[in-house]
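We append the chain.
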Amino acid sequence: MAPGEVMALVGDNGAGKSTLIKCIAGIHAADSGEILFEGREVTIHGPKDAARLGIEVVYQDLALCDNLDVVQNMYLGREEHDLLQRLREPVMEQRTRETLAGLSVTTIRSVRQQVAGLSGGQRQSVAVARAVMWNSRLVLLDEPTAALGVAQTRQVLELVKRLAEKGLGVVLISHNLHDVFEVADRITVLRLGRDIGVYERAQTTQQEIVHAITAGVPTKVAVVAENGAPV
């Protein structure tokens, strides 16, 4: 995928979407195959390797701490300190505000309010902003609109569009094809852990994608010749 592109990853439950994302993020080790990033093969042994490449993941549970405020969540595990190991609170606050403003997140009243008091859409915005604050090149979003209302879903979809406008690559996992067709440039379909195909959003329909999800045939199938050798 190219910078500034939104690639949707769709498939039924158990298709392998989240497992694939976790392999890219370094949570799981891939059994085989290769990962190409910016035209070169890379090896990802863990989340730190992925982060060094500029790969950030926003998981479905968001991994936010409700008892901490927005700034503390944005810098969780990456706090900035001065020479005496004191937290550089003003610097962290300013960068948090700048990041949220750059993504046009205007509904959060204060960066010092606890995350527990935020709406679902606001929490999702904090999680996405945290992902893009660290020189990200690729952001992976796992079901970002799940369990959100109409207004909050609209807020998150607009945020996805702004990520692409900023030149980031975005991989969007979603069961909601309406959301997928609104923001995605291309759609990859997985079925039973296999790649069914990549579809151009402008040249396909929801009906075709549903058919691929439920009855699609993998694009690469192992073929065995008469002598028993794989082809």
